Amino acid sequence: GTLWAMPDDVYISASFARTFAEGGGLRWYHGAPAVEGFSNPSWVLMLALLQRLPGFREDNLGLYLGVVNAGLLVTLVLAFVRALRRAVQWSALPSPRWILALVLVWTGGLGLSFWARTGFETTAVALLAMTAFCEALAPAEQLRLWRIAGAIGLAFWTRMDGVVPCVAAIVALAPKLRVSRALLLATGGLLLCIGAQFALRRWYFGEWFPNTYYLKATGWHFADRVQQGLQFNAVPLALFVGVVAPCWLWLRRDLRQVAAPIAAALSAYAACLAYSIDAGGDLAYFYGYDRFTV
């Protein structure tokens, strides 16, 4: 028969989701020890909801995830269009043809589309980071801080390192911030959201961090991690240091009001690259980066 297959990591998350959907808790299988073998809580919850859909079959898991990620990719493009309009103060709506061209460009991007097709939560992290960035580009008097905090909080719940690409929103937001009740409420809400994950993990699994993070870092010397990270990320690092950053410095006066949003976006790129290097990188078919920060 036909099998809509996924990579092994996605099946691990789906196994936890299936047991959860069947009432066995967040376990790899019924009766398994309480070990957090996944690092994407909100994605596991989404997979559990898929398991509850009428007529769901395990053989079609890849098809369901393909539909979910296709919707996320299109929504990501629309968020990008909105961010672009805010950055350049563009009041006119783009034509449908222009939006279609952007959809084709974004979904044709090798890294993002590849990991979307394989069912990972990469597109969800990218969408949440783009949403926070778009909201941070609003004029100071129109900022909706709770939306930015909500997007960052959901990115954290999708993956703990999902906050890394959200650096763009924080950098874009920083010059506009003034101490206010709204800022304190948004910050408090974000900290509560983040703290809740640690508290729930400690209560249920008995650990403060996901088991997968211990496996990644424990016993792997920092110098060795960085050496491999530099090797795997040599191409994007060389392009960023040798081409992208110098081009921004050269063009920043001509870019005018767009220079600051571009710098904020590039700060997230640099943060993701640094994170990937520190974590040992991911060869990812020679694209560089880790698949979750693509």
Please explain how this structure is put together.
The chain has 294 residues and is mainly alpha-helical. The chain starts with 7 loop residues before the first helix and ends in a 16-residue tail after the last helix. The chain is globular, with a radius of gyration of 20 Å. The longest helix is centred in the first third of the chain and has 27 residues, at 61-87. It is built from 13 helices and no strands. The chain has helices at 8-21, 41-51, 61-87, 96-107, 110-117, 122-136, 145-158, 167-173, 181-205, 211-217, 222-232, 234-255, 259-278. Helix 1 (8-21) packs across helix 2 (41-51) and helix 7 (145-158) runs parallel beside helix 9.
Short description:
The chain is mainly α and 294 residues long. It has helices at 8-21, 41-51, 61-87, 96-107, 110-117, 122-136, 145-158, 167-173, 181-205, 211-217, 222-232, 234-255, 259-278.
User: Helix tally?
Assistant: 13
Outline, from the CA principal axes? globular
**Major sheet:** none
Total strands: 0
Element pattern in H and E: HHHHHHHHHHHHH
Structural class: mainly alpha
State the end-to-end CA separation: 33 Å
Task: Provide keyphrases for this structure.
13 helices; mainly alpha; 294 residues
SSE arrangement:
Blueprint lengths: L7 H14 L19 H11 L9 H27 L8 H12 L2 H8 L4 H15 L8 H14 L8 H7 L7 H25 L5 H7 L4 H11 L1 H22 L3 H20 L16
